[in-house]
Design brief:
The chain contains 15 helices and 17 strands. The chain is of the alpha/beta class. It has two domains: 135 residues, Aspartate Aminotransferase, domain 1 (Alpha-Beta Complex), CATH 3.90.1150; 266 residues, 3-Layer(aba) Sandwich (Aspartate Aminotransferase, domain 2). The strands form five sheets. Strands 6-12-11-10-9-7-8 form a seven-stranded mixed beta sheet, with helices on both faces. Strand 9, helix 10 and strand 10 form a beta-alpha-beta unit. It is globular.
Length: 423
């Protein structure tokens, strides 16, 4: 890799050689101070694809003109809508098309997966997860163990970083799995930790769990569309993710699930059933007796939320065009450049995201002026993300962020220091 240079000209040179630079023009940017913002919060809510409105209008037109017949005769017949997303989704998470389905929202799907894969016994009833997981994961684990009659303080094992450290060491995770294997029913981790930006070693964690007969699942809310995933090859039991962060599918957008193909035709696996998960060829016979559809589709409950899925589909087509491998490659360089300009700034900022185990998010531990620095960024056209008590999160998304964006971030950080010195 060419050594980085902290100049505008160098950043423009990187953009000129970026084969993905054209995707930036396929998104709407918020306007700050009369100019398109530098948007670094795709880890919270992705930008709107320009094609999203057209995709939504198509479904609105079919609803207007066809009514219920849109299920069969629309441009994208609603009856099969989830199938239109399967291959693109599989490409993003490294799965076979029948191992994934888009449905519901993330926490709903997490609970549905727990019904099937958290099967506690008097001896093996505990869940291993990272400490400080996203609140929905914490609440889901807490309520699930309570539902089965256990106390969270006893049934949930949270793995925290070592004293004075900010992220977990893989060897510590594996050691905890080994130590508690005989009493553990489920390992449930993030793919990328929302606060620190650490990307966990999904393959090693899964292998360790399976070696002890433990089911292993992941919340990929901050990983899907961010890092390269190989869920099928890594033998993960299940995973869930949302569509509104890196997958740019709108606020509260639809979620996705992965269920490994070894469970694809196992009707004995417990699940909460709904009619859209019933065997498709017999679904409209409206008879008693649930027969699950093959693969992940057999976990569906209700028919597709088409309007939300239309926006999701528009974004997935951009991922098909760009390719996850190319996006991940650019992400590494773009994020490394962001780290470079932050470290070259005049501010005393500490990046707590690991240098290798990460996607495109950097979490920056600030000094006492942290909130003021965050506001200074926003006042200068940069939308970042604040997390209490003193962390600024920045996510340079390879689909729509440029290297020039990153240079400007470093420049704005330096102007804050100059103003502080002047005062």
């Amino acid at each position: 890799m060419t050594p980085f240079v902290n100049t505008l000209e160098f950043s423009k040179t990187l953009d000129a050689s970026d084969t993905l630079s054209g995707f930036r023009e396929k998104f709407h940017f918020p306007i700050l101070n009369g100019e398109p913002a530098i948007y670094l919060t795709g880890n919270s809510l992705g930008l709107q694809p320009i094609t999203a409105t057209l995709a939504l209008e198509q479904e609105m037109k079919d609803w207007q003109n066809l009514g219920v017949e849109g299920h069969f005769h629309g441009k994208n017949p609603w009856l099969y809508y989830h199938k239109f997303l399967s291959q693109s989704t599989a490409n993003i998470v490294g799965a076979l098309p029948h191992e994934v389905v888009v449905m519901n929202n993330l926490t709903v799907n997490l609970h549905l997966m727990m019904v099937s894969f958290y099967r506690p016994t008097p001896k093996r009833y505990k869940i291993i997860m990272e400490a400080g997981a996203f609140p929905s994961d914490q609440y889901a684990m807490e309520s699930q163990v309570k539902f089965h009659g256990y106390l969270p303080d006893d049934a949930i094992i949270e793995i925290a970083p070592r004293a004075g450290e900010h992220h977990l060491r893989t060897e510590d995770i594996l050691a905890i799995i080994e130590k508690h294997a005989d009493e553990t029913a489920l390992i449930m981790f993030s793919g990328v930790q929302y606060y620190t930006g650490q990307a966990f070693d999904i393959e090693s964690i899964t292998r360790a769990g399976h070696g002890k007969g433990i089911k292993v699942g992941f919340d990929l809310a901050h990983a899907a569309g961010n890092i390269e995933l190989k869920l099928h090859d890594w033998n993960v039991d299940f995973a869930v993710w949302c569509g509104y962060k890196y997958l740019n599918s709108g606020p509260g957008g639809v979620s996705g699930i992965f269920i490994h193909e070894r469970y694809a035709n196992d009707p004995t696996l417990p699940r909460f059933a709904g009619w859209w998960g019933h065997k498709e060829s017999e679904r409209f016979q409206m008879r008693k007796g649930f027969i699950p559809e093959f693969g992940a589709a057999g976990w569906q409950l209700s028919n597709a939320p088409v309007l939300s899925m239309a926006v999701h589909n528009a974004s997935l087509k951009l991922f098909d065009e760009a390719g996850m491998s190319a996006l991940a490659k650019k992400s590494k360089t773009l994020t490394a450049y962001l780290q470079f300009v932050i470290e070259k700034s005049n501010l005393n900022l500490n990046i707590i995201t690991p240098p290798v185990e990460r996607g495109c998010q950097l979490s920056i531990l600030t000094n006492d002026d942290g909130k003021e620095i965050f506001m200074h960024l926003q006042q200068n056209g940069i939308i970042a993300d604040w997390r209490e008590p003193n962390v600024i999160r920045m996510a340079p998304v390879p689909l729509y962020n440029s290297f020039e964006d990153i240079f400007k971030v470093g420049h704005v950080l330096n102007t804050y220091k100059l103003k502080s010195t002047a005062n």
